[in-house]
Amino acid sequence: MAADQSIGLQIVRSHLRYLVKNFCLSTRKFDEVRLKELKNFVRRNQPVIFNFIKELLVFLKQPFVEIRIAVLLICDEFFQRSHVFRLELSNRLHDFLVLSAEISPMQVSLPFSRKDSIILKSETFRIVKSWHEKFSAAYPKLQHSFAVLLACGIDQSSTTHETQENEINRRKRAKARFVVAEITKEFNDSRGDIMRCIRETHCALELLVPKFESEKSRTANTVMKSLDDRPLLDTLHGYVSSDTISITIPLEAPVLTRNQANEALIDSLNDCLKMLRYFENLITKWLLKLTKYGCEGEMVIRDAIETRAKLKSEIGKCEELKLSKYSMRSRYSSDSDSDDFEDVPEKEGYEPNFKMPYEVPPYVMSRIEKQSQLPLTEHFVHGRDNGSSEVGPSKANVPILPFGLDLKYWGERDIRPAEIPLNCYDCHPFWRATKDSNEIVRDSVEVYHSRLITYVGPKLTVQQCRAPRKDGSLCPRKEHRKCPIHGLIIERDEMGYPVEQQPLVQKRSSAMMDNEFLKDIERAIGVNLSDKTKYRSRRKDMMNDGSEVRRRLSTKLFNRRSLKRISETLDSIRKAKAAKNFQHQFNYAVSNH
Fold this sequence. Notes:
2% strand, two-stranded antiparallel ribbon, flat, Serine Threonine Protein Phosphatase 5, Tetratricopeptide repeat
């Protein structure tokens, strides 16, 4: 029996997975074949219904709105047909509503967006309402569950969702009407200017490039057209030319020549072309907005399209004439800039392109001669240094570090000290050395091998801390002044105790002996010799008492006027914050006015 139940549970689980996986949310339909197989299997195996409802609740815990709606519809299918299913689901109806209708949001909330939650709640309310209308008399738990749904306000979720959608659509329609009304008003206001600009452009083009077509040419054209309508054999006559005739038709636009006669006309046509392009861009923007709300302004769209077609035709005609090269700038570029000035004769002997001869300074020539007299190697070295100075830093910016003779002769063993001749001539007019000697002073060899570095200040001695530690040993740290663990380094004895505290201990012992001797004398004579009157100032008592500080601060902080001022400030801040968040609401505005 247990094996049959496990096999039946596996079959039910596989059918549920397939149905949920292939469920279409938009059409709310299942695979009819698999659903029918599941219904037949559950009807033949009634004991599997308990486990079947458990599986449905497991699927109902999935965090996807499609899966939960699919489970709801499957429950509806079986609830309408099976009494056993209705009994079992009535016993688990609270869990069912918690997962589908969110009747206890503090414990279990729906894990998806608010819009999906509203859809799921409205679907749950619809299904439970249909169950209540059909089976509430036979199943009291169903009646209580429907009352819980009504108490939680689930019935308002669907209506609220529809109301929100209707409000959104109403706002969109209102915005569309407003936009169309604004564009219609602007179009009607500027239509007169657009048509006037089109007429001016058309008239200017007719004057610049007229159409030479008279009444005679029109009649000739009609005659030729009638001849063309006749059959080909009737139009042929006895003379047939055997020569080929080539006709060249220029496809370019007519060439305009700017002169004094058409100057003003071309300028006005350029201005009209600018206005036509401006109006074309403006109408294009209007059409983009109107196509967004097409159902509201069909008449305006049609008129705007026709007007834009007229504008494009006139702009195309102007662009064929290439009016950009006949602008005001080309007009003034053809004429000289000195038309308004009088011609002045040039001076005799004046040469505007004459330049003074370039004279090389003498110090430059002398430097060039010196460099030419240098040997080739020195000249090459100087030239290389000059070339490298352009790439690297300048010599003035390069730091110069002095170094001694020990670094100059570093690593050399055989060093001959420098020979300095003895100077016996001090330029004194009367006195001179007894003998003129050519003695030579030689430096000491130590200068070439070692360097003497002097340190300024007292020599710092290193002392051992020797403070006693917990394990009985002494601190082995050696510092100049202060140990990072035990503080200042002081003199200590062999056990690690400070040496300077011994006189203090001796003083304390002598003072204690004096006190004992004084007490013996007091016992003998019966007079209190050690009692001294203690004078305490009131100011000192006040400073030592902590309650006095608290009392003085409380008199300042808890003053009536201070409390009133601070409370008014806090109330104004709170009201401003609340008004910022809720002033747009109707209830808040009514309650505060």
